[in-house]
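Data deposition worksheet. Section B asks for the primary sequence of the deposited chain exactly as it was used as input, without tags or linkers unless they were present during the calculation. Section C holds the resulting structure in token form. Section D is free text for depositor observations; keep each observation to a single sentence. Incomplete worksheets are returned to the depositor.
Section A, Depositor: J.P.
Section B:
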Amino acid sequence: MLSPITGLMLKTKFTNFKSLVYSFIIFSISCNSNKVEVEIKQLSYPSGSGIEFYNERFYLIGDDATSLLQLDKNFNITDSIILIDSLHGRIPKETKPDLEGITVINEKENSRLLIIGSGSLKPYRNIVCLIDPVTKQTSVFRVDSFYQRLSNEGLEILNLEGICAIPGYIIFNNRGNKAYQKNYLILTQNDFLNNQSTIPVYIIQINTKEDTAGFKGVSGLAYAPGSDKLILTVSTEDTRSAYEDGTIGKSYLWIIDNISAKIKNDTISPNRIIDLETIDRRFSGEKVESACVISEKENTIFLALTADNDKGNSTVFKISILK
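Section C:
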């Protein structure tokens, strides 16, 4: 059995966000002769870093926020879960857990939300949260052993920014920067928390020939089960460190086809690259941090994205892409 960290006061409460400030825009444009509809909403919630869709609700985390938000399908806030009691509206950079990725793991009894710290600053960021989305019961666990294994396996700089589940595996991504120009996928099993020291781990380097706008760091992951596609959110940022922020550049989606057949590869490359600013100019100045799949139709994948503009707010998007 796992033992939750003691000393962290974890509780659930509904919060009336009267201070919510948002803009809501729906419009259509032509992109490659296909109509694309984009919905955008800005929330007065800090540093959106991860988004997941489960049971007709969105769940949004921020890397320095004290709570997890629950949103309805129109991005209206319906509930929140306090993760860490703090006197600050935003947790100071020096001590924040840097919660960067969120996914749903299916277990025998129920499903839980799995949220990961980036591991980029010990000991504060070496944590994982497990949350029951029905009961709101929350537990926090240390993952020092597992993160140390990743370093031992060859990840010189640890900066886990995304996570998703595919059949039989959990996939993390490790984001590089301008001084460490390498992105990786890390695959392991659902129960890695129970067996951090010996559970199998597979590391795949992500390669791309697209390098006209400088190094592109992978910031998030999503899985489309109906088409077996791995969707990566990617951005440029003027930073040479896993700790420091930098000037925001452009954001992209990278699409990897048939991911289930590539999980033992040494390297992997995207089959398709989408420049988000070519779809909507309002992606300019927004660092897209995460994606989740809402639904799939025969030829279309419907996604939600979250972005951080480094101004204290979060922006959420709905967008559709062709398979």
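Section D:
The domain at 36-322 is CATH 2.115.10.20 (Tachylectin-2; Chain A).
The chain has two helices and 23 strands.
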